[in-house]
Design brief:
With 481 residues, the protein is α/β, with parallel strands linked by helices. It has 13 helices and 27 strands. It folds into 4 domains: 173 residues, 3-Layer(bba) Sandwich (FAD/NAD(P)-binding domain); 111 residues, FAD/NAD(P)-binding domain; 85 residues, FAD/NAD-linked reductase, C-terminal dimerisation domain (Enolase-like, domain 1), CATH 3.30.390.30; 58 residues, Orthogonal Bundle (Arc Repressor Mutant, subunit A), CATH 1.10.10.
């Protein structure tokens, strides 16, 4: 029996443990130890903005029940600090205890990056009073404790997580201002036109913006001074300015590290007995900071660690980014930062700022290679299916952008017409065919489908689609239940 130790009990480490036990339910092949530094059971970080908004409770975002470890033969140790990896003796130091391993997996995730703005940190290097990062369940509790209606709040960062936090706080009645040093929002995923339309949409939901100027100083109880000389009042400053891979343990162990822990297609580090996955790992085919790559990596690594599929390899992930903010429907995928007059691509763009709609489509050889779709969920659904399946786009491009065209090959939004291979839940790579199979096996409710397939348990963006398929199955095949 192999002794596998996983350092990290976040979304990547928890999923790896699940995948290992799916392949080795009784623990006959792998003795599994999971080390987590937080005192909580694993939880879904993707849904933390919903906890801030008050639409989900902390318990609702837990990935595991309190008795999960005992039921699945996992030695789970919470609240301990892993201080050292001794690769020569193959032991991990947790506080004053040594934990031996045959194979070690680093799932240490990432840590918030705090801009070097004077005043954000106190004299000891900790966050100053009134400043909270947005990364953990404990951070959510601190934010909620200070976020009463009417409270002026500044959010540092106009990326994906910053906007989700801002929307959640605005939903609580806070007076939210997003401060972002770049001239438009979500610059990694959106072009300037989409960023402007998104800002206008969010302004209509009560969020103000200071774009193109960084904060220059923070004073507790007063707020932020910006580089352009203006002032943003804030009783609370939420820092969501990006993350950095947590590589300190890997560096201490002498592993090869760049922006993250370097791994190959087998998710091995420079030491073949040590693996890494999730936000702490750096793989050529991975976009960091998203859950889908981590969970696909977990399946590959579980195949290898249990010996079920020793040849399994991770080949990268095609990512669709979705903003999980109430009343905002945004999807971005592929290479969307292509100019309209590009010589090597067909680029179409539609803007309707007054109605919060923006759609940009990038095609090469008649295939979708990039897109931004805001405020047009029907168009987004069709374009994502084309992108996932590599199908040719319909000849009526404008109708596709407006959500009025049915893509060639049957990528229609109707559950009855979706092919079995269509991916419904991207986070967990669950197809319509898998949902139908689970339903016919007795999983006839959304919760049962989620338990059987994990669909809708990632970012939650596919919940309506999963519900639609469940409703269609119930109506069309009532005798199969």
């Amino acid at each position: 029996m192999r002794n596998v130790v996983v350092v990290g009990y976040g979304m990547a480490g928890a999923r790896l443990a699940d995948e290992v036990r799916r392949r080795d339910p009784g623990g006959e092949r792998v003795a599994l130890t999971v080390l987590g530094d937080e005192p909580h059971p694993a939880y879904n970080r993707v849904l933390l903005s919903s906890v801030v908004a008050g639409s989900l409770t902390p318990d609702a975002v837990r990935l595991h029940a309190p008795d999960w470890a005992a039921k699945h033969h996992v030695d789970l140790r919470l609240g301990g600090a892993v201080t050292k990896v001794d690769r020569t003796r193959r032991v991990v130091h947790v506080d004053d205890t040594e934990v031996p391993y045959d194979a070690l997996v680093l799932a240490t995730g990432s840590r918030p990056w705090v801009p070097p703005t004077p005043g954000l940190l106190d004299g000891n290097g900790a966050l100053a009073p009134g400043v909270v990062a947005f990364r953990s369940l404990d951070d959510c509790a601190r934010i909620v404790a200070k976020a009463s209606p009417g409270t002026p709040v500044a959010v540092l960062g106009g990326g994906l997580l910053g906007l989700e936090a801002a929307r959640g706080l605005a939903g609580r009645g806070c007076l939210v201002t997003v401060v972002h040093p770049v001239g438009h929002l979500m610059e990694r995923q959106l072009d300037a036109g989409a960023g402007r339309v998104l800002a206008r949409t969010l302004q209509g939901l009560g969020i103000e913006f200071r774009l193109g100027t960084p904060a220059s100083r923070y004073a507790p109880g007063e707020g932020l001074e910006l580089a352009d000389g203006t002032h943003v009042p804030a009783d609370l400053v939420v820092v969501s300015a990006g993350v950095r891979a947590e590589t300190a343990l890997a560096e201490q162990a002498g592993l090869d590290v760049d922006r993250g822990v370097l791994v190959d297609d087998a998710l091995r580090t420079s030491d073949p007995r040590v693996h890494a996955l999730g936000d702490c790992a750096q793989h050529v085919g991975t976009v960091s900071g998203l859950v889908q790559p981590a969970w696909e990596q977990a399946a590959v690594l579980a195949d290898r660690l249990t010996g079920v599929a020793p040849a399994a390899r991770y080949a990268g992930t095609t990512v669709v980014t979705r903003l999980k903010a109430r009343d905002v429907d945004l999807a971005a995928l592929g290479d969307a930062h292509v100019e309209v007059d590009s010589a090597d691509a067909e680029v179409l763009c539609f803007q309707d700022p007054a109605r919060g709609r923006y759609a940009k489509l990038v095609l090469r050889d008649d295939r979708v290679t990039g897109a931004i779709v805001l405020g047009a969920p029907d168009a987004a659904a069709a374009i994502v299916q084309l992108y996932d399946r590599g199908l040719p786009a319909p000849t009526d491009r404008l109708a596709l952008l407006l959500g009025r065209a049915l893509p060639a090959g049957g990528a229609e939004a109707s559950p009855a017409d979706l092919p079995a291979s269509a991916v419904v839940c991207r986070c967990n790579t669950v197809s319509k065919g898998q949902l139908v199979t689970a339903w016919r096996a007795g999983a006839t409710s959304l919760s049962a489908i989620a338990d059987a397939t994990r669909a809708s348990t990632g970012c939650g963006g596919c919940k309506d689609a999963v519900c639609g398929i469940v409703d269609w199955l119930a109506a069309s095949q009532p005798q199969s239940a």
